[in-house]
Design goal:
mainly alpha; 4% strand; 137 residues; elongated; single chain
Length: 137
């Protein structure tokens, strides 16, 4: 009975914009953290590069920050990534991607000179390097 009540609560939450706002922030934070780990930087180095405090970086990785697009771009570039924003059709009622699936949709590798050369990648398959330019296109 408790499980059915929880599922109903989750379904009701998904009807509110606030659920989707928090999900987007968390998905961004997960993707950012994956690039951050691959960058080899410390939180202190990242904070210094962004002219902010290590405490703010911790807040970002917890998903507690209220991001502007400008901040998202700066954070992504600081970990050798690039922000890509898109609008996708709403999913089927019963399907919700896992956080990793969501993060993978947000992670793109640039291969070439035009926006047509962006492709989604699984961050766990990226080569261990400080530059995403070495990924196979």
């Amino acid at each position: 009975m408790a499980i059915k009540s929880f599922k109903k609560l989750v379904l009701q939450a998904k009807l509110r914009d606030s659920y989707w706002v928090e999900k987007a922030k968390l998905d961004f934070s997960i993707a950012l953290n994956q690039f951050f780990e691959r960058s080899g930087k410390t939180q202190k180095e990242l904070a210094s590069k962004l002219n902010t405090s290590p405490a703010y970086i911790t807040k970002v990785f917890r998903g507690d920050a209220n991001f502007t697009i400008e901040t998202m771009v700066k954070l992504a570039r600081a970990v050798d990534g690039q922000l890509h924003i898109d609008i996708a059709p709403q999913k089927l009622k019963n399907y919700q991607p896992t956080p990793l699936e969501s993060a993978n949709r947000a992670i793109l590798i640039y291969c070439g000179n035009s926006t047509d050369s962006f492709r989604p990648v699984n961050p766990t398959n990226l080569p261990k390097t400080n530059s995403v330019n070495t990924a196979t296109c």
